[in-house]
Amino acid sequence: MTLSDKAEEILETMWVHTEEDKKEIVDLGAISKTDSAIEELKKSGHIKLIDDQVTLTEAGRREGRQVVRRHRLAERLFTDVLDIKSKLVHSVSCQFEHLLHEGIDENICILLGHPKTCPHGKVIPEGECCRKSKVSIGKVVSPLADLKPKQKGSVAYIHTKDDKKLQKLMAMGVLPGMAISLIQSFPSYVFQIGQSQFAIDKDLAECIFVRIF
User: Fold this and answer.
1) CA atoms within 13 A on the CB side of 29
2) Do 135 and 31 share a domain, yes or no?
3) Which of 92, 109, 126 is the last residue of a domain?
4) Are both 63 and 98 inside the same structural domain?
5) Is it the case that residue 102 has pLDDT exceeding 70?
6) Long-range pairs, 185-193, Cβ under 8 A, ≥24
7) Same domain, yes or no, for 137 and 41?
8) Domain of 107?
């Protein structure tokens, strides 16, 4: 069931209050007076309403966690990749988070290298892609710089805090899931994606993590 933007915002606020601020019961006045959104959440089973107090159900906690995750990933994307100014990050992310539903948010998380915190230092709730990454990284994921010539794989993620490097690699087509092969490692690293070949230095090659075939 797809929730309205307002309903998602209420869940986001409630999750932060209950899970991070450790408040079991939240007064509606601190969240929203929007009757339609509250009714929507009641019918969907995400909240329980008693008098003027509202609590999250287990389903509400799960969905609230996902909304917070999408919002903070959006903040990370706008700050690190698109260089949106800090004063605008929160408001722009509030609008964008509603588009990052299942699948898209994981792609962004992988692209950003599974960031741990948002630009404001708040923890980004871990996703399934993060848990899978922990298992696979030690076994089959390696920086492109560590591959041997002719080794092949797919791009697992890009790990860099330098937005210029990230944008440069993305412009080359280095995106999660893309097939990649190392052609040579000296004097520069030459790799192939699709029908195109690119030469980069070691610094950039160390930013590309490859899931080896």
Assistant:
1) 2
2) no
3) 126
4) yes
5) no
6) 185/145, 185/147, 185/148, 185/149, 189/144, 189/145, 191/144
7) no
8) 1-126
**What is the count of structural domains for the chain?**
2
Q: How far apart are CA 49 and CA 47, in angstroms?
A: 7
Segment 27-83, tens digit of pLDDT: 666 555 557 888 899 899 998 877 767 888 999 999 999 999 988 888 887 776 665
Residue 99, domain CATH: 1.10.10.10
pLDDT at 132 over 90: no
Contact of 18 with 53, CB cutoff 8 Å:
no
Give residue-wise pLDDT tens across range 167-194. Answer: 999 999 999 889 999 999 999 999 999 9
**71 and 176 co-located in one domain:** no
* Spatial separation of the C-alpha atoms in residues 16 and 60, rounded to whole Å: 12
- Is the model's pLDDT at 206 over the cut of 70? yes
What pLDDT does 85 receive?
A: 56
Same domain, 135 and 148: yes
Outline where DSSP puts E strands in the chain: 26-27, 47-50, 53-56, 141-143, 152-158, 179-184, 189-193, 196-200, 208-212
Q: How far apart are the first and last CA of the chain?
A: 37
| Two structure tokens written together for 186 | 């000296």
Give the model's pLDDT for residue 46: 92
